[in-house]
Structure formats: structure tokens, C-alpha cells
């Protein structure tokens, strides 16, 4: 995750030597994996916290050259710009495809904010755009990705989860909140609304009256209020937040990954319509393919097989 480091290497591929460019390192997020748990962390203090002094100077110079806005401010309450979302999607994809990972924690760096939504300094006439002119609301793709990811995603929230950041915690499967957490939608104050999952998932979580209150009044709610409303699963003291979240992860990891995968797709199926059914249908296909393999006496080796073989032998 060191910023601004690009390494090249030669690789022998399809009979030819090729120049392999490894994936660009993350600049806006921190991504870690251990003991079956992936942790995806929004980190908008990136240059200061993750780069050496030389990297910082080079990176800062590049940013001044490339960006209209000076992005290098240590505290932005983990607001996301399009580039942040691109990196989040890469990390979530990796966690999805990594067989050793069974659960994902999504969080923000520090204790002041999980995420304060879209970075307002990147919102221009054409919507949200990076210095490379990537101008669209790619956070909507991230929401869909979390919703359809076949592993549980836990939002670990300290401080503010507001605006687009509030929608991100809502689309996660579980939310563990610190006692300093604050939740709310801010969009209507700046002339915007998330009329997709931001509206429908909220309606499911807190009910139609509360959902209207949250959107119409753009009020903030503390952790205890959020708990009463059904927005979060539990509230813990700030200093216990990570410990408690890891405890939940370990409990989930003790259970059948396939059962959890199917439970997630089944719980989302009705609301997600055709795409929800497609996800659940995909799980059924996976099971039937696995069953055929076991019948033929083959050891499951495919990625899904590795995840489900334990369950499947019991199921047979
Ligand atoms: C989070 C708040 C409540 C924190 O207050 P606090 O602790 O008093 O800190 P501040 O002093 O206010 O902030 C510290 C520094 O951080 C900067 N900052 C905070 N949030 C943002 C942000 N979102 N973008 C850019 N900068 C931010 C402050 O400016 C300050 O910087 P300095 O020190 O330099 O002054 C409070 O900060 C707050 O209310 N923040 C704004 C919340 C907000 O309006 N968020 C955006 C809402 N919109 C979205 O999230 C977009 C959603 C979206 O993508 C979308 C999706 C679907 C459909 C439509 C949209 C769409 O909106 O277009």
C-alpha cells in the first residue's frame, strides 16, 4: 500500500517475455488481510500516514500538478472521491476472490468518521470527477458490489456515517457502531438524494415513517437512537469497537460459508428482483456443479469448491 511506488517485472507468458505492471498501489484506502478477515479502510490521510517523506514530496508535487483542488488535507472525515471508490472496488473484488477470506470489515480511519460521503470539492457541474476526468457516481457500483458480494460485509462505524457514507454502512450486511457514532443523510442540504439503495434499503431497515424523517429532515442520530431504529446491530464503547467486530467475524467464520452465502442472497432476493434471483440462482448452480463433482469422485478444487466442500459433504 505504499503510495507512489510502481515496480515493473518481466514475466514469461504464453511463450513470450512480457512486461508485467503490478496493480497500482492504493493511495486512498488501506487494505489488510489476516485470519480469514479482510479489512478495507477508508484513509483520506493517505500521503501523511502511508508514505515515506520522499514519497510524500513526490506525490504532493504530482497532485498539485494534476489536480484542480488541493486534495492533500489530513482530515476530510473520510469523504470519498471517485478514485477512492475505484480503490474500494478493487479491494472488495480481491476479498471476494480470495478463498482464505470469509468476512470483510469496512471501516474508516480514525475515530472521527466512518465516512462523510462524497467529497464536495470533487463535485462540479459534471458531477463527481477526478483529476483524470472520471466523472460519474461510481459509488452506486460499489453499493451494488457490496450487496452482491457472497461474503458478509460488516461496517465498523466510529464517528460520522453521513451522506453517501451513511448509505455505504446501510448496504453492508451488519453494522457495529461505537458509542460516538452519528448517522444521517445530508444530501437534501446540498441538493442531492440517493434515490436507489439509499431510499429502499433505508425503508427496509427503519420503516417508512422513519425513512421519510431521515430524508426529509436530514437530521443526525446518535448511536443509541440508531440502535433503537434498527439501523445498527449493536453499540459498543469506542475503545472496544475493533475487538467486538473481530469477535463477530470469528463467530461468522465458525459457520458454513456456503450457508452464509445462500442466506445473504436469499435475504436480498426479493428486494433485488431479477438480479437478486440471479444471485441466488447462481448459488444453486454452484451447489449442483459441486455435487456432480463429488459424485464423480473428484476432489473439489475450484475456488467455490474450496469454500463449500466442507458443507457439501455434510449436505450429501
Ligand atoms: C461530517 C461532518 C458532520 C463532520 O463535522 P465536524 O466533525 O464538525 O468536521 P468539519 O469541521 O465539518 O469537517 C472537517 C473537515 O473535513 C471536511 N469535510 C467533511 N466532510 C466533507 C465532505 N463530504 N467533502 C469534502 N470535505 C469534507 C470539511 O470541509 C473540513 O475541512 P476544513 O478543515 O478544510 O474546513 C461535516 O463535516 C459534514 O456535514 N460534512 C459534509 C457532509 C456532506 O454533505 N456529505 C456529502 C453528501 N453527499 C454525498 O455523500 C454524495 C452522495 C452521492 O454520492 C450520491 C449518491 C446517489 C445519488 C446522488 C448523490 C449525490 O450526492 O450527488
Automatic annotation (TrEMBL):
<feature type="transmembrane region" description="Helical">
    <location>
        <begin position="44"/>
        <end position="66"/>
    </location>
</feature>
<keyword id="KW-0472">Membrane</keyword>
<dbReference type="InterPro" id="IPR014748">
    <property type="entry name" value="Enoyl-CoA_hydra_C"/>
</dbReference>
<dbReference type="GO" id="GO:0009234">
    <property type="term" value="P:menaquinone biosynthetic process"/>
</dbReference>
<keyword id="KW-0456">Lyase</keyword>
<dbReference type="InterPro" id="IPR010198">
    <property type="entry name" value="DHNA-CoA_synthase_MenB"/>
</dbReference>
<comment type="similarity">
    <text>Belongs to the enoyl-CoA hydratase/isomerase family.</text>
</comment>
<keyword id="KW-0812">Transmembrane</keyword>
<dbReference type="InterPro" id="IPR018376">
    <property type="entry name" value="Enoyl-CoA_hyd/isom_CS"/>
</dbReference>
<dbReference type="GO" id="GO:0005829">
    <property type="term" value="C:cytosol"/>
</dbReference>
<keyword id="KW-1133">Transmembrane helix</keyword>
<protein>
    <recommendedName>
        <fullName>1,4-dihydroxy-2-naphthoyl-CoA synthase</fullName>
        <ecNumber>4.1.3.36</ecNumber>
    </recommendedName>
</protein>
<dbReference type="InterPro" id="IPR029045">
    <property type="entry name" value="ClpP/crotonase-like_dom_sf"/>
</dbReference>
<dbReference type="InterPro" id="IPR001753">
    <property type="entry name" value="Enoyl-CoA_hydra/iso"/>
</dbReference>
<dbReference type="Pfam" id="PF00378">
    <property type="entry name" value="ECH_1"/>
</dbReference>
<dbReference type="GO" id="GO:0008935">
    <property type="term" value="F:1,4-dihydroxy-2-naphthoyl-CoA synthase activity"/>
</dbReference>
